[in-house]
């Protein structure tokens, strides 16, 4: 769903749906860390209690012959570990930034048509560049 479609679905007017949806998303992004902290999910707690244990995750593999289980072994859960490492690298900002211009292009396209002055254009661009 595009931002405009999401905005309309959320009940915003068609004229400003994309901008309103973008602003709502930004507001939630700013509030979410506080909500998580109040719930006891601080950055430190998430890393210590949840992320670090995933880096040593194991799974049990079973062997069977003629429908009867004959053996079982604990092995490294490589998929879970890889996902945990990916999560850690993302949190640390180790990856190159993802391109977001396509997401924002819809917002700019809709709103540039509605802007009445260069000053409004500059305000919008500042909002996009400094979320």
Describe it for me?
With 131 residues, the chain is of the alpha+beta class. It has two domains: 1-41 and 98-131, no CATH class; 43-95, no CATH class. It is 63% helix and 13% strand. It has a two-stranded antiparallel ribbon. The radius of gyration is 23 Å and the shape is elongated.
What's the helix-strand series?
HHHEEHHH
End-to-end Cα distance, whole Å, is 21 Å
Shape: elongated
Low-confidence stretches: 108-116
Question: Which helices and strands occur, and which strands form pairs?
Answer:
Blueprint: H1 3-9, H2 17-38, H3 43-54, E1 58-65, E2 68-76, H4 78-92, H5 101-114, H6 118-129
Antiparallel strand pairs: 1-2
Helix pairs in contact: 1-2, 5-6
Key attributes of the depicted protein:
2 strands; 131 residues; alpha+beta; two-stranded antiparallel ribbon
Give a brief description.
Helices cover 63% and strands 13% of the residues. The protein is α+β, with helices and mostly antiparallel strands.
